[in-house]
Amino acid sequence: MRRGMMGSLSGSLASLGAATPYAMAAKMAFPGRTVIAFIGDGAMQMNGLNVMITISN
Asked: What pLDDT does 27 receive?
């Protein structure tokens, strides 16, 4: 990360699917900034429907 950039990790580093709501909240808090989330296949299975609903709206 470069100076001025921010990052976030889940509290116990074992929370499956935490990146999706973190990324959505970051985009809502800072709409003009680019948000990047690294999400694995297990997390997408847990949160995939939420993402599809968000995109469709």
From this structure: 93
